[in-house]
Write a structure and sequence with these properties.
The complex is a heterodimer of chains A (about 200) and B (about 180).
Chain A (H helix, E strand, L loop, with lengths): L1 H14 L2 H4 L3 E2 L5 E3 L11 E9 L2 E13 L2 E7 L5 E8 L2 E7 L6 H15 L2 E3 L2 E5 L2 E8 L2 E8 L2 E9 L2 E12 L2 E9 L4 E7 L1
Antiparallel strand pairs in A: 1-9, 2-8, 3-4, 3-15, 4-5, 5-6, 6-7, 9-10, 10-11, 11-12, 12-13, 13-14, 14-15
Chain B lengths: L2 H17 L2 E11 L7 E10 L3 E8 L3 E6 L2 E6 L2 E6 L4 H15 L8 E8 L2 E8 L2 H4 L4 E6 L5 E7 L5 E11 L11
Antiparallel strand pairs in B: 1-2, 1-11, 2-3, 3-4, 4-5, 5-6, 7-8, 8-9, 9-10, 10-11
Classes of the chains: A alpha+beta (about 200), B alpha+beta (about 180).
Chain lengths: ~200, ~180
Amino acid sequence: MRILLISISFLLLGCASYPTKNGFVPTATIERANINSYFSDTTKDYVYKAKIDAFDKNFGGILAIKKLGNMHHRLIFTTEMGNTIFDFTFKEEEFKVNKILKDLDRKILINILKRDFCALILENSKIDKIFQKESKTLKKVSILDKKHFYLSENGQLSKISRTSNGKEKVVFSFSEINDDIAETIEIIHRNINLKIALSAI
Amino acid sequence: MSVSDAITLRTKVKEVAAKTETVRSDFTQYKHIDFLSNDIESSGQLAFKAPDMVKWEYTKPFAYSIVFKNKTLYIDDAGNKSNIDVGSSKIFEQLNELITASIRGDMFDEEQFSISYFTKGGKSLVHFLPKDEQFSEFIQVFHLTFNAKGEVDEVKMIEPSGDYTKIIFANRSLNQPLSDADFAN
């Protein structure tokens, strides 16, 4: 009987949602709110040295992000010597590829980049649910039909998790926050061999 | 620039290039992206050894170096080392050849480029338009500025979008001994 109870508990825990599994309890819901202010200042150029480890190959470059208006960002990735690899615009619901090198012009790759960068820069969103655990807040947001959880500690965003079946699939970590700029950002895919590390320059 | 001035410049640059065994120079790079408020600035040292070894060593604001030698591109990205066989990539091979040629200024190849000549602030400015369509997707035009001695002072690589990379050379020393170790990566 005890074994059965433990098994059921594990089964229930296994099926539990991502917040419940991590000890968060739901609080009041709000309609729309700020979820990420790290790319929210139109007067700033957000420039990062990027290191990408993809499928056992690693390469680097420069990632520059600029907020051009409300719900409007432009993002460009170049080599260290300045050659443009890709250049994207995110404007409200619209996504536009301004340029991508022919060798990289693959729908599957563009979709991965679109999802990752959309989640990285999205400033405001409809909040599906808010959870609380001590000084930590977890906001559940749907981005491009995928569940995302925004974890803030003492009001500062430290992590975004894209989940599926209660498990983390992609994790965005923000650290060394200075003057509302995340100096270090890591985007780690758990289901594919892809890691993007960004350091502000 | 008159036709005779263009011919004189060309002859002078080719003479300088032919005598150039090694180059060591500081460089400052400005990446201009139209939608950014400021250019992205980086700087470092360049080393060149004839016929075709080049090392670009960025020291600010990040440590990154790239060496072109033996048809291979060796990268050291803050300790992360990798290499690319440039022979397998036409674009990289061309870029390598062009960078090597542009350091010496010896890019006057009418088969590869449409070339036009200008004078700007007492210096000579030459525009090189790549004829290869695949390459011009990468860089639409090179602008090389030469000083009175026929040395390259500035290279500007303009992309089809209008964004560009400008590299300005300073403290150049010519034909000082450089060993293979200077090109290790």
